[in-house]
Specification:
With about 425 residues, the chain is an alpha+beta fold. It folds into two domains: about 10-165, Chloramphenicol acetyltransferase-like domain (Chloramphenicol Acetyltransferase), CATH 3.30.559.10; about 170-355 and about 375-420, Chloramphenicol Acetyltransferase, CATH 3.30.559.30. The chain is built from 13 helices and 15 strands. The protein has helices spanning about 20, 40-55, 120-140, 140-145, 160, 165-170, 210-220, 225-240, 285-300, 300-315, 320-325, 325-340, 400-410; strands at about 10, 30-35, 60-65, 70-75, 80-85, 100-105, 110-115, 200-210, 250-255, 270-275, 345-355, 365-370, 375-385, 385-395, 415-420. A seven-stranded mixed beta sheet has the order 10-9-11-13-14-8-15, with helices on both faces. A five-stranded mixed beta sheet has the order 5-6-7-2-12, covered by helices on one side. Strand 6 and strand 7 (about 110-115) form a beta hairpin. Helix 2 crosses helix 3. The protein is globular, with a radius of gyration of 22 Å.
Length: about 425
Amino acid sequence: MKQRKTNWTKLDNASKYFPAVANNKDTKVFRLACELYEEVDPIVLQQALDLTMESFPLFKSVLRRGFFWYYFESSNLNPRVELESTPLCAPLYIKHRRNLLIRVSYYNKRINLEIFHGLTDGAGVVWFMENLIYHYMTIKYRERFEGKVPPLNPRASISQKMDDSFGKNYSDDIKRQNGGKLKISKVYQINGSRNDENRTKLIEGSMSVKSVLALAHEYNTTLTIFLTSLLLYSIYKEMPVNKRKKLVVLSVPINLRQYYDSKTARNFFSTMTISYDFKNNSSDFNEIIRHVREEFKRKLTKEQLDKQLKYFVSLEKNLLARIVPLSIKDFVLRIADKLNDRKITSSISNIGRIVFFEDFKDYIKQFSVCVSARRPLITLCSYKDNLVISFTSPFEDTDIQKTFFQLLSDSGVEIQITSNI
């Protein structure tokens, strides 16, 4: 009897972290949602999903455990569109279960795409959603478009989408310089009563991109730097007075495709930390923005990113790390993750502007992105003039969220607030 050949793929450098640390409190799942002006047609959505999966073969993989490493194994499983019924960012990777790491659901006028972070990052999710919505629109409204819509630009070949860009851009020639390390005791931690059943609380603010950009330009800065500074300030405003001597530290993901020759649909990101010392520096908002702008300028350089990339890939290539059994690697990663977690106060991630053909503008209202959270954090994206800022949190308290949106509102930005609570 002839055995079926099984194809498998090594995890990239970032992906190896997520299976080890994912749990019911932080599932490492993120959601990109598309809100339409009309009710979603689930039959058409399934057809669009089937077509999209053909361009992303890795997304049909299941995650398996080897003796030394995790790996992706190809499968004949096909994702099925379903009416939304699970909690926000519910687990996708479940140890010892052979299932896909992607979920597509719908509710009224909203299409939800949820993906386990071990499979791809924010840029990869946007890319997949662009394909999904393109196929949905061209099937659903075929007669209305009458051939006016141009063919979908694949952006990259399937082999390019499958690239491990960490390994491809790794070089031994880059020297890593160790910067000063933060002491855990000096970093402010946001705590509170957890939501029932570890559910993620979502509060979203939808607003005009132009109005927030105009506000950022008043401070002579970019939208991302402005919102990063606003998050720092909002956290400070809600800190107990006796805690204000501690640093507020934000983690900011970086899409490395902007700095390297990469068209991968897999993970290819890094992070930088932006910290502010309210004890020894002014709490004036202008001063916070000036400091954040300087930190972005200093850390977002090719030289700094090269050093960071080399450091993480070199850890993976270390002989001892390669021969240690996976169970021990997982244990070490979980300990390291807990220690690193105590060095972060919150995070902010801007996946950027989502662009579609002009022909689709009458059918798509907006996009939003959110992630599972172990602490209150922000994710945001924009489409046309719609900017959606999403706060996710594991805690019942919402004071930081209220302060953040109130500060924007007091500055003249009109905001429509929605929530899952």
